[in-house]
Fold these 3 entries.
Entry 1:
Amino acid sequence: MSAFNFSGPAEILRAEQKDEELYERINRQLSEFLLKFKGHVFINKNKQNIFCTSQLLYYALTTLSKLQTLGEEYTKIVQVGKTGKHIPGLIQSTGMILAHVFGDRLIILALDRLIDNVQHNKSITSLAKDQIIRFATSVKSLVPLLQSLNRVLFYWNGSFYTWAKRFFHIKYIYAAPWYRPKRPLHVFKILSVLTAIHLSVLMIMTVFKTPKVQKNAEEHLNQLTPLNSSSKCSLCLEPRQNTSLSFCGHLFCWSCIHEWLQTNDFCPICRKRLNPRMVVPLQNFI
């Protein structure tokens, strides 16, 4: 029997929050570095990839190097395998990190591929296609709630903060032998119940949202706004979201132009002087 005790939810929670703060700091520094060489268009198009790179860099320098993360060191806890007697192996740690960083995106990508294959498969009847696509779409909409569902279980039993650690069965023990602070856990039980209620409401709203209404709205939008160069933002090169008009007469996404103006005081197209007060959101713009 191990002389080390499994850690409580309070220490795990503080460690994870500390780690999130640190790799977000790496993300900001990496974004600032790439901004000087690649520009705003590259940053806006690759925000998610840059964030994932920051996470991978942080965990490669800590967990994959058989070291504690700074959050784990801060709260004096150590990762262990299922038995609690050994630290996770390289394959187990690598799988956990990849699932944590890319898991949600890979699930959504697989569901998108399934939907695309079903739509173009002529051997499947229209009724079967509709049912499969509706099911896959519902599952896809629930993927962002996967972490929240795991959080409900974590608050209740205090074992796995992320679903990736739960899948690969990576737990925590206190770094000091025989150390086990006595702390009331009823607060976490209450938090688990409240989170479960909130999550249930979100899942009900997501599952019972009428797919037909959403589909009709998207088709109507596509008919009104063809995806050509005139409907794309000059900064992110994607269809404009919340179209905004600059004082000099150019159209951008609201978020893109304001991110640009945080570090520049001119229009990215005509280079005329521009500040955030000279950008107007266009309501009901087509």
Entry 2:
Amino acid sequence: MNAKEMISRLRNSYDSGKTRPLDYRIEQLKKLKKMYLENQEVIVQALSADLHKCRHESIVMEFMFLVNDLDNILVNIKEWDKPETPEKPFVNILDKLYVFNDPYGVVLVIGAWNYPFQLLLMPVAGAIAAGNCVVMKPSEVASNSAKVISELIPKYLDNDCYQVYTGGIPETTSLLKEKFDYIFYTGSSGVGKIIQEAAAKHLTPTTLELGGKSPVYLDDSVNMKTAVKRILWGKLANAGQTCVAPDYLLCTKNVEKKFLEISREILKQWYGDETNKSLDFGRIINDAHFQRIQKLLKSGSVAIGGNILPSERYIEPTILVDVKPTDPVMMEEIFGPVLPIITIGNLHDAITFINKREKPLAMYIFSKRKDDVNLLIKNTSCGGICVNDTIMHLTVDTLPFGGVGNSGMGHYHGKYTFDTFSHKKSCLYKNLGVIGEKLGESRYPPFNERKTKFLMTLLKRRAPMSFGFLRYVLAFGLGAASIFMYYNSQGMIRKG
């Protein structure tokens, strides 16, 4: 089935109203969860084949991420789907206001190769929950995972409403020529611009989850061993192939010395003397990316690591020092197990350095100095911030996840995914009574000064009424009633 036929099939299904009933959506989400639970080992094996991803990372950072997300949706979808009732202005005091959650229609979700299941199927779950029909495009770079997705989805989900479209650049280019009602893309900033350009031809709204060089600021106020472990874990998970991985470290020369000393100790604890023999460390996805990262190793000086095995696409966890802002490693997102250190004099140097570059997807601040943390937060711009840890803000589904500027637009996770794939359709339900009509009749001709002034008064925005004072009135009333009852009872006793 070609792209045009696939989208036509889904369009017919959507127009029939098939995906709108809440019970249908819940049924499909339960089937998606069943697909995960029945195929955990298949998913783990595919990730191992594509990325040499260890079992622990596959289960925690892909499988359980998806299962937990679905559980959250299933628990909350009925509440999320209810129309919202916003606050009413004074002029609408007799009316009713609603905001309905309307599905967009036929949406396209394009996944990424570094987390091939999570980054495709997590937004898909939100799109299904919102009532859309979905075309899923897995990344062809993670070919084993793409094959598993294309084989499993048709076995579990309704083929009339949810389809997988596979292929490389030519197929994706063909797909983007078609009209969608929404496009959700995860990947590089360069491809994100192509997606945005294609979407603009049809005025299609988009969410772009891109990347960028996510900085880490580290000072000497923290428990250095804990900080080093958390920074290295965020850098080396999935062999550094994570869109929010720490991309470079900003610290003073003194902190750099401590960081390197502890890093040597930690890396040996984690991976032994020969990291390439560790079952817990991954590999670079393909030769092109391996060669790209290999060239970046020539920036600055290698303080730790630096060894490679081209036959395995293995790059040892590497820390670079004496790095200049103009070095190649600082000119692009690394997306590999290489951490350059840029030495700074103070906090203000860090702020200046960050602000001179494109806005990152994430920023990490390691400091116990609250004033310094607040200064960094208020004077920089990024997609999201995690203080005293890395990556973990992604796991909080009540926080929106997304970029800004070059690192993307829009956000998702938890209810934010449901909202991303829902058009907020407003509705004003006017009162037809005599009083409502009397208040509104000044809008009708013939006009005069009296009508104009009345409408200006009626339409003037006022601060919302606060009913907090009622608790004091209630407390006073209860107190007065208690006193009255007490004296009344005393009188009855005396009479008796």
Entry 3:
Amino acid sequence: MSSITGWKRLNAAWLAAAALLLAACGGGGGSGNIGVGSGLGDGGGAATSPLASAEVQKAASPQAEEELPLSEHADGTGPAARFVEPGAMAIDRFGNQFVIDRMPDQDTVIRKITPEGVVSTLTTTASGGPDNLLRWSGAPLGGIAVDAQGTLYVSNYWNAVIEKIDAAGVVSVLAGKRGEQGLRDGIGDEVRLDMPMAIAAAADGTVYFVEYYQNKVRKIAPDGAVGTIAGGGGWGPGDNGGDGVGADARFNYPSALAVDGQKNLYVFDDRRVRKITAQGSVTTLAGSNNALRPYYVDGEGAAAGFGYQPGALSVDSSGAIYLADTGNNVIRKVQPDGTVSTFAGAQYPSVVLDSDGYNTPAAPLYQDGGAQVARFGNLRGLAISTQGIVYAVDAGNFLIRKVEAGNVSTLAGRRSRPSLSMNP
């Protein structure tokens, strides 16, 4: 590994770790670049003027929060449920949501939320620890997906494998070999993966995933064969650079992924929504990675501006893409022609300047109501049902939110914040 490549990877790893830390603390983290010029803007223009903390706090919701330690965890219905560190989300054809979460002992678990807001923690017929819960010990999961048959898939990035979870909660390795990182296509345990992150599943069971550090998009066919769809490594050059076919395409740390009914893929990388056809042709649908462009603006194609910190992507039956724009604390909608609008949430930056002029996570805001006045805090997961209902993981407020008919409501969880007495 060259010294330049090593530095880039170390820097990216630090940024990813910082984002996870911010998420755990209820701040505004997310995959992407955190620091000077970190995806902040006033609603329509310059990328150089993040709001001051005092201005953000003026918009704080009147709805109450309670002080609870992050270790609080409970199954239940609606506000009786508690989440510890909710992250990526997937949804099945019945509208059940599956969310990656943690336990008080920091084991990773999967929570199921029904359309009625009933929250449970998945169990297993195999040995799963206390209460036979389905647990991953010391192995954070990067993403989750579900296919048309209800089979779950998770990207175990720390152990460099994609895992499959059947209806009985039994986990098996779908691709890769536990603990052995690398970059090799093939089938079964001859495959090597390098910290797979975002993941998506097509109706026929084809599984797609991104390798954040390798800047590649790969797939697992129903027969288990693993191949690379697009991305030749390296960073995409210039303004909207990096489009191309297969290995000629370039990505800049792809961090969110979705698939539509025609097996077109949608990827978020470097403030852009990219489209990958089934043939591996990559184009930029919306946004720009030009640092001088606005970080929050609705518009067409490259004129649109996104924050650096995406939480997730989802796509509906019409081909419209929904993006958890974590850097701006809103949900954006991208039409198939690249036209971008704000679907839900009143924008405010997830990072603000403190009194010393340094970037710091903004306090997460919260408000239910009309889509244009609602507030989210640190969006980490997103999914859309076959009925067109959008669900979002509001990690900053430890909630599952629901957007339906132009209205935002809280489906499950109770707004909370870390106890001041909690040890970091």
